[in-house]
What does this fold into?
Amino acid sequence: MRHLGFVLRSFGDDTSGRRQENPAHTIKNKSEAVYRRGASHRQTPSTYGCSGGVFVWPRGCKACCVARPGLALLIHNWAEQAPVASNRSKARSVSQGLVASRFQHPHKSHVRGVLVNSDRSAVSAISGYFYQFDATIISCLALPRDSDYIDVECVEDFDITTATETTAVQCKYYEATEYKHSAIKKAVRFMLDDYAQRRTAKASPLKYHIRGHFPKGGDKLPAKIDVDFLKRRFLTYKKKNVTHEEHVKLGLDDAALAEFLEGLSFDLKAPAFAKQFSQLLSDMRAAFTCTEALAEHFYYNNALRLIRDLATNADPVQRRVTKKQFLKRIDSAETCFDEWLARFRGKDKYLSALRKRHFTELNIPSVHRFFLIETGPGQTVATLKEMTRLIARKWSRTSKLEPQPFCPYIYFHGLPADELIGLKRELNQDGFKIIDGHDFQGADFDVESIKVHPTDVSGIKVKIINNSDSLSKTLTAIVRSRAIFQFYLEKEFFSFDSPSVPHVKIRVDEITDIKEIV
It folds into this structure.
């Protein structure tokens, strides 16, 4: 697979080193806008194959997508951030299935919450994505040395490099399809193309591996295949009723094909989705000495995000990660809301997992907690007031029995000044005492003022910070334990460079999700 580019125009040069056919085909008809990967496997628009593909707006729904920003954003993110589906039928079913099952669509043919055939296909296709990403993560964890590395979406789905060899791996996942040679035929041809290019360039040869799950039929492929079988079953094909022989086109004789076969291997009995995921969690637990819940909801989420970020980077050099880098980057205090994972597993379950990971403590320690919340357009003061009271109730301890009383700091990013004043006014009118570091009207911000200890006598419930400059000053001035929880909608909006201060960054779909997390 290759990562998608969002294009409604002709394509640039193929930077993958592979040849590209029909590069200018971008619009099939007026009701379809086609997404095609920037470095595509060779395939014509009408092909129903297992490699390559396009992402298509649901037929007849382009106007609806434009009119509904949430839907348009989901599909745009799919195109901009995710590898393309392993075949065109999957891509279409994914787009239509997500629309049908996740959104209230204005067209009668799309009904929210109804499981239709296209939605089942979508789930199958999304399973294929996760299957590939999970296999990549397992391979990262299994690298023998810290300096060994994996390249994501380069020669193949992922390429494993150790001290002795590089193996290009392509994944195939079929939940309900019996194995046929045609299922991997194009994959073998693409690998042979890469072999021929390297042979011509006198570059170091690679090993090639096809890792596939099929419910049955894997025994049809002999344990050891010869050159004749390779030519008959994988390299000979018809196109427009004309027979083509890939090895002849590439100028490869039997000796070269025999050499290629020496580096080609197959595993058509790879574990099913659930079994592979169970193996992944077991490997995660071993790598980080953690519980299964922590492996699934923290390390796995971060690993998934990292692999996706690598796969969608336009620069092939930036798609490489060593084992040491991989482990360090997923063992991070940052947690990102992953839209794919949330939709695949269920948003409620996903938010609950974040709550258990970061906001479930029996004995809450005395820590200066900073809640940084990005507000969006149309956000009401009533919602922010409810959230402020909720955070204060859960994360304040001001009784006489508390040796070091504390209450939370809250910073609402992007909230207009008049709305912030309105929020403070309503909290004050409700008898809910706040401080903001300004002792009187027109006074400059005073760090010492906002640092004052909350007690049962002072009645301080929460400390509201007006801007990012005051936020930085407060974090710097406090010497006791601090923790930052940043909730952002699209991009992180605040950074604080201090290894001693945990900084949890959670991307949320909407601001109301925060109430389900904290």
